[in-house]
Design brief:
Layout (H helix, E strand, L loop, with lengths): L1 E5 H6 L3 H8 L12 E5 H7 L4
Length: 51
């Protein structure tokens, strides 16, 4: 299963910093609030997004 999370959702859930690290993104780069990131089920569980 794949989990899709937007930047806005990641910030609301407090996992944005983890998403940046997970995807190797530049923290100083600009992102659209609706930009989406696809996580595996295992990644989503590690971040506490799903049980």
């Amino acid at each position: 299963m794949k989990i899709i999370i937007s930047q806005t959702e990641a910030i609301e859930k407090g996992v944005w910093d983890d998403i940046i690290i997970l995807f190797g993104l530049d923290k100083e780069a600009e992102f659209w609030p609706t930009e989406e990131f696809i996580l595996t089920e295992q990644q989503a569980k590690q971040l506490g997004i799903i049980c």
